[in-house]
Amino acid sequence: MLSKTIQEALNNQIRIEAESSQIYLAMACWAEVKGLEGVSNFMYAQSDEEREHMLKLVKFVNERGGHAKISQLKAPNVTFKSFKEMFEKLFEHEVYVSQSINELVHISLQEKDYATHNFLQWYVAEQIEEEAVARTILDKINMIGDDKGGLYLFDRDIENLTVTTAATNTPE
Ligand SMILES: [Fe+2]
Ligand SMILES: [Fe+2]
């Protein structure tokens, strides 16, 4: 059974993951109308992933005797000054999500809810990866600068971007 405090904290994270999905969907649309198909496909996939993160939490809350709350979401930014700005926002958002996950882990320990603590470890590892991906993209964008040819190649290659982190390297 989930405590009231844990349930509220998990429901808050459900909202954050849902908002992440919307934020990235808006980025996908912006990239699509700008003609960058690779970036757009990448962001559509990110949006789908965030929805998966949300659903995983929804199921967990419901399975443990709680009731997942589906709440109203903040409208995301729909336009950006540049791709650099868009990816900066993506990185900032992932850092914000990591902080929120950390806080959630902290609450689970305070509440002595070790099942939730264990469940959240997946999110801890996922955030290490997502921040690393966002950082790699920003490094590439900074290298390209205003070079149109560079942006063309970046758009072509982003869908195959793989980032190996210390977390993904850890033997099971
Ligand atoms: Fe997420
Ligand atoms: Fe994420």
UniProtKB/TrEMBL annotation:
Catalytic activity as recorded in UniProt: 4 Fe(2+) + O2 + 6 H2O = 4 iron(III) oxide-hydroxide + 12 H(+)
Keyword Iron in record: yes
Location(s), subcellular: Cytoplasm
Entries under SUPFAM superfamilies matching the protein: Ferritin-like
Entry EC number(s): 1.16.3.2
Predominant cellular place of this UniProt entry's protein: cytoplasm
Keyword Iron: yes
Record-linked InterPro entries: Ferritin, Ferritin-like, Ferritin-like_diiron, Ferritin-like_SF, Ferritin_DPS_dom, Ferritin_prok
Keywords, in A-Z order: Cytoplasm, Iron, Iron storage, Metal-binding, Oxidoreductase
Domain Ferritin-like diiron: 1-145
Family stated for the protein in its record: Belongs to the ferritin family. Prokaryotic subfamily.
Function: Iron-storage protein.
Protein name: Ferritin
Taxonomic source organism: Algibacter aquimarinus
